[in-house]
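Methods — Computational structure assignment.
A single polypeptide chain was analysed. Its primary sequence is given first, followed by the predicted tertiary structure written as structure tokens.
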Amino acid sequence: MGTDILQGKKRIYFVGIGGVSMSALALFLHSRGFFAEGSDVSPGEYTARLEREGIPVYIGHDAARVEKADAVIANSAISEKDEELAAARRLGKPVYGRADLLAYAARQFENTIGIAGCHGKTTAAAMCAHVLQECSGSCTAHIGGSDLDYGNFFAGGNKYFVTEACEYKENFLKLHPDLAVVLNTDKDHMECYGSEERLFEAYKEFAGSAPAAVVCGEDKLAKHLPFALTFGPGREHDVSAANIRSCGGRYSFTLRIFGKTCDRVRLNVFGRHNVYNALAAAAVAQYYGYPASFIAEGLRAFRGVRRRFERMGRFCGAEVIADYAHHPNEIAAAVRTAREICKGKLFVVFQPHTYSRTRLLFEDFLRVLSPLEELVVYKTYPAREYFDEAGCALTLSKSLPNALYVESVREMEIYLRCSLSSGDTVLFLGAGDIYFVAEQILRHRGSSV
């Protein structure tokens, strides 16, 4: 793929523009003077932002729309049978993948920081963007979620470009950042990789594609990657945390760099796992030579990302919290955090995300979900996949000792109304449409079923 795939091109059409990454890339092109437009199957928060920024969004696909395009962007979830994509091929339009455009975007900046890992990418990338903007005043960020201040795209300057580096289908191998960050190497997307060995090889290639890497020194595989700096709470790491304290589920710690005690960091987000994300961001800033006081201030300024342990309101006297957790280790972290702040019973509503992930990590899901005493399993969000009984939510629920399986919002709402008491907590977990289910239930909080 050429280094300047958009040379001489002005009008760029996105097939599937409403996704979090695709919409951010459309915003990037718009900020650089391109005419960006695109289609999606339904409106959403990201298409709404595009329209506010003056980027045309079409609901539904129409082959005629690509005729005027100089290039077409389609992510890996788009079928080759899609009428717009098929028309672009037929007309001989240059067609690029989302990862190709991201790599192009990265090359427009002085320094690109690519943040990889099975989980934590969105929060760590957003934290890193806040820290580098505080330190340099010149940072642009491509974020896989909606930062409460930056959204999914923030144009703050050309010195640094912070982006998530997604391991799905080895997309991150196209990025070639100036600094690679590996948060963890937990197994995921095994339908793509087939083995943990191949997954680790991909992370190794990603880390080796950059002149330098920052890795979690406590990850069993990442610590064996070539690195410039390690991070982790233990004092043996280059960037570490001392005197870790929790106050109502929010953590603070003293930043320690190369063994030297520095400034106190106070996080405005919940969960001990965010200490790791904060240390990753601190290690990036340390790599570029910024002082600890600026790092601490940048971390303090970070207020969070939507759907990352987001407190949504109350239902039947219980607090409702939503988290994007869809991998077993993410679920475990979210549950640990919820138990820290929950005064009554903890109810967990989990929506599996893709049949393949559930099937391939079935035993891991059983391990983290079996101890939960009040568990609702909601129908699978299939994303790009077809039905697979071995990996469906019903099959998972039947293997769990305390799980109730539901297929409708009405069923779930009736169960919660009959079960919740004041002081309880309901934790909605999943990367699919479970967040909107929680929103719908909260809208009905004052009505009878």
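Note: The chain has 15 helices and 21 strands.
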